[in-house]
Design brief:
Troponin T is the tropomyosin-binding subunit of troponin, the thin filament regulatory complex which confers calcium-sensitivity to striated muscle actomyosin ATPase activity. The protein is mainly alpha-helical and about 300 residues long. Helices cover about 75% and strands about 0% of the residues.
Amino acid sequence: MSDTEADQVEVVEVEVAPEVAPEAEAAPEPEAEAVAEPEPEPEAAPEPEPEPEPEPEAAPEPEPEPEEEPEPEPEPEPEEEAEVEEEKPKFKPPTAPKIPDSGEKVDFDDIQKKRQNKDLIELQGLIDAHFEARKKEEEELIALKTRIEKRRAERAEQQRIQDEKQKERQARREEEKQRKAEADAKKKADEDGKKKSALSSMGGGYSSHLQKADQKRGKKQTEREKKKKILADRRKPLNVDHLAEDKLKDKAKEFQEWLRTLESEKFDHLESLKRQKYEVTTLRKRVEELSKFSKKGAAARRRK
């Protein structure tokens, strides 16, 4: 019995070892189990195994555990950190696997596989979410491009319709202008025919009067034509569509100089006009004063 009790005590010590070990040192426990596994002899007696289970409770070996329990005093710090973390985005720290208290063997490989599978599932979920978001963004981009193309086509169609309407309006203006010119020419020809018939029917005195009126009208028309000719000479077409940037700058400088000369001429003419007006008013006043004095002298002479 002493040998079996010794074997049982050894078995109990091997099984209790994982309970005493802390959770942070989970890696070296498989080695202890590996050392305990090659002893199949104590496990051959299944019936006496449940009997020694209450012995470790009375054994003095697990008594040092309460001495280690006062260590949770620094635990308030993680609570404060937990409160700070609650304000931030919640993050679940990785928890160590729980070791059963019944002394059963822990399969760390299975735990590691489960953790890896869980990480893979989370990673796959993140990848799927990323691809879904990317697919949605691509669909939105394609829809935006189609809207832009559609809007561009609509604007081009609107511009084409506006150009056609502008051309139609221009053509109508030209037709109206041509029709009006033809009507004026026809009216003038009719008036000339009537005048000629009237001249042939009436006497020579009236014809001479009409000729003088025509001459006066012709003089007025020639003055108007002269004015138009002068304005046409001054208003020259630009023709700057084919010019380069440097030539455009030179043309702008030329127009600026020309405008400056025109402004100076205008100022000179205005000054001369003011001077002439002043001279006319002064001369008129002198004439009025002289006429007053001459009237007074003539009246005095008459009295004498």
